[in-house]
Amino acid sequence: MTCRGVILDLDGTLADTLRDIADAVNTVLAEMGLPAVPAESIRQFVGEGLPMLCRRVLGDRHLDRAERMVPLVAEQYRLHDLDHTTLYPGVSDLLDALTARRIPMAVLSNKPQEATRRMVAALCDRWPFVAVEGFRDEEHRKPDPRVATEIVAKMCAAPREVWMLGDSQTDIATARAAGLVAVAATWGFRDRDVLAALSPDYLIDHPTDLLGLL
Hints:
The structure is a single chain. The protein has helices spanning 18-31, 39-45, 50-58, 66-80, 91-100, 113-123, 146-154, 169-178, 192-196, 209-213, and strands at 5-8, 15-16, 86-87, 105-112, 131-135, 162-166, 181-185, 202-204. The protein has ten helices and eight strands. By secondary structure, it is α/β, with parallel strands linked by helices. Helix 1 (18-31) crosses helix 4 (66-80) and helix 3 crosses helix 4 (66-80). Helix content is 44%, strand content 16%. Strand 7, helix 9 (192-196) and strand 8 form a beta-alpha-beta unit. It starts with a strand and ends with a helix. The strands form two sheets. A six-stranded parallel sheet has the order 5-4-1-6-7-8, sandwiched between helices. Strands 2-3 form a two-stranded antiparallel ribbon.
């Protein structure tokens, strides 16, 4: 397949953000008088935006507190989102190689827009991106394909010439909805067998494995 662009997810694909997300969530839960949630559970909840994360953390019993919880977690995370977060091993090599090959790159995340752009600026400022897009509103949240389609237009490519790399069901569904090549990353927040069952176009175990497919 021809590759004229790569769209990358952020949490669980470019960066290991789990500890900082879990710390923010559990700090707010403690302030609300609720028990902490294990990081392993939060790992399964991440990927569909902060409002959905809060709803899943609270469960049906405390769902009425979700609207109050969202801005509190957002602020706590804003203050500590880079305390422990780093790029996954091999990500730098992948971005270097894509840049050297002059393949346009973009980031598309369900992390809030401000947080997405702040994190990419902090961790990935040495690489050029044609777009860095985070969560705008529920209407445009992945797997809705519209923002991905906007990015494809910026890359001056056809949908099947753009590859989307992500670590969740949401990323695979987004790629399919937008007509992109779906590449699943097994080093992130979902287990390999979960991703394999979704039949992405490709399944890779290390960031630089993508280069062997191009």
